Amino acid sequence: MASPSCFHSEDEDSLKGCEMYVQKHGIQQVLKECIVHLCVAKPDRPLRFLREHFEKLEKEENRQILARQKSNSQCDSHDEEISPTPPNPVVKARRRRGGVSAEVYTEEDAVSYVRKVIPKDYKTMTALAKAISKNVLFSHLDDNERSDIFDAMFPVTHIGGETVIQQGNEGDNFYVIDQGEVDVYVNGEWVTNISEGGSFGELALIYGTPRAATVKAKTDLKLWGIDRDSYRRILMGSTLRKRKMYEEFLS
Q1: 114 with 168, same domain?
Q2: Residue 79: pLDDT band by 50, 70, 90 thresholds?
Q3: Residue with more model confidence, 78 or 222
Q4: The Cyclic nucleotide-binding domain covers which part of the protein (predicted)?
């Protein structure tokens, strides 16, 4: 019959083996990152979110394995070949191609962002809040993010008859109508009008695609706009702050 000390030794070995396994595969860091992502996103269906998160990790792991295998195979077949050093590629930041935004925002971009504050009265802030409350680009924002977005919005004015945005042109700004009314045209044909409290140009905040419609001032206009750069930096900065907070909580 095995002695108690023998069982104790087996338990210690098992625990040590478990610790080595967790350390070898970085399990603790993977789970920590997973919880951080979960806390930042706060999805309505957390189990589905976790499944998709781990599926992405698995795909990335498979990609890295294939890349290593390909690299090893190339090394084996070209051991005695010496290739000239290729020139350093020129990396163009925030390049656009095919009408789709290829902008890549880094942590440095978010940290270096200088908060913009365009003064607004209470009535304007209330109107802006109401105008974007049901907009999909803003519905997920917390109070701090929403406040930063509102502060960064700048005034734009047009007189009746002027073109606010032109179909086919590059889109950079999103607008909320404070005063006035606009007509919307697609391929030269009138499709709708938008009045006070309405908004347009949402796709400009996500993509660099050309404007899908022409918007003209039906009356004198007062708009509030925000540019894509500010929108993305604000959200990225907020996400980084949340990540740091949750990581410290889990440490």
Answers
A1: yes
A2: low
A3: 222
A4: 137-251
Q: Are 167 and 212 in contact (CB under 8 A)?
A: yes
> Hey, what's the torsion of the CAs at 129, 131, 133, 138, to 10 degrees?
-90
Query: Are 168 and 211 within 8 A, CB to CB?
Result: yes
Q: What tokens appear for 81 in the block?
A: 């070949």
Q: Judge residue 24's burial from the number of C-beta atoms within 10 Å of its C-beta, 0-12 exposed, 13-18 middle, 19 or more buried.
A: exposed
What length does the chain have? 251
Residues β-bridged to residue 155: 224
User: Quick check: 172 and 206 in contact, CB under 8 A?
Assistant: no
As a whole number of Å, the end-to-end CA separation of the chain is: 43
* pLDDT higher than 60, residue 65: yes
Domain with 155 in it: what CATH number?
2.60.120.10
182-186 and 214-217 as β-strands: parallel, antiparallel, unpaired?
antiparallel
Cα(144)–Cα(140) distance, rounded to whole angstroms?
12
